[in-house]
Write a structure and sequence with these properties.
Number of strands: 18
CATH architecture: 3-Layer(aba) Sandwich
Radius of gyration: 21 Å
Number of domains: 1
CATH topology: Rossmann fold
Distance between the termini: 41 Å
Amino acid sequence: MHSLPTPPPPALIQAIAQAGGWLPFDAFMALALYAPNWGYYSGGRRKFGAMPQSGSDFVTAPEMSPHFGRALARQLAQALRATGTSEVWEFGAGSGALAEQLLRALDGQGVPVQRYVIVDLSGSLMARQRERLAAWGDRVQWVQELPASIDAVVVGNEVLDAMPVKLLQRSGGTWHERGVALADVALGGNALVWQDRPTELRPPLPVPGEHDYLTEIHPQVQAWLRTLAQRLQRGAVFLIDYGFPEHEYYHPQRHMGTLMCHQAHRADPDPLMQVGQKDITAHVDFTGIAMAGQDAGLRVLGYTSQAHFLLNCGLLEGMAEAPLSERVMLQKLINEHEMGELFKVIGFATDTPAHPYDGWQAIGFEAGDRSHTL
């Protein structure tokens, strides 16, 4: 059953007009996801949940199993001790499920987290988080801007894929930047259409062949990590998301890119339909992330699949007596054909003259580290 077309939000039509009739896709994606009042993450949809009957659009690992957060907490506990920090910062905390799991597990391990700071742009999600995390009182705080300096362990689960990307289209051997425009009145009034313009932008790797090729580049993701690295004086960073190293990302056969939308637990490739009512995502170029972090002074601790990372962090400990339903969910987190291989984890540590990296080895990358593939 297909959803009926809905007209674009008036504010989006106005933004396109003010931009001269054409918005680069990253600007369109930023509005579609984060514009006040009508952007997807600004609205009141439930978004996160295990089943479409709940009114949700997709499920993330913390909603699937509390053991995800418990395993991740073991890595954060090690990083807090190794870096001598006492704060955890989470970007894009969603429903608050991961924060709840991490706080419970870290408290249970006797690891003192003096402050758990959530950085989120969604007012509706922050309201859900506040309700869910009320038991921790003032230890949990919310900010929307980064301070000048941070000493903390930082975590982000499925936050990078929702950062705006630029679209590049090679047609007839010529590269174009893909943007969004309004159709002529004769073609349907305010319908949104793709419009490509010649560009000097290129993927980070040359794509062999002359065939038509659509892909994404990630300047905003890399700029975000560089900013975080500049503010992070002492600590570590762990980012979990779906993606590839660049030699897989820009493979000649990946000619349709990775852009995808999610609504009511169904995926579709058309971000120009029902704008503001569905999530828009793109896979992560982990090589670009690693290089941006290194250029900003961070040291890569490791890069591996979600399956290897969670198993290294003791995901299966104590599961022999767990109910079958829990074990089924754990399999979804680590099975190669589900989340185990598609999702990756990359870790960084600060390495500055004031706080040099002292060689500690992150437990999440002890087996199966793939840093050499970046």
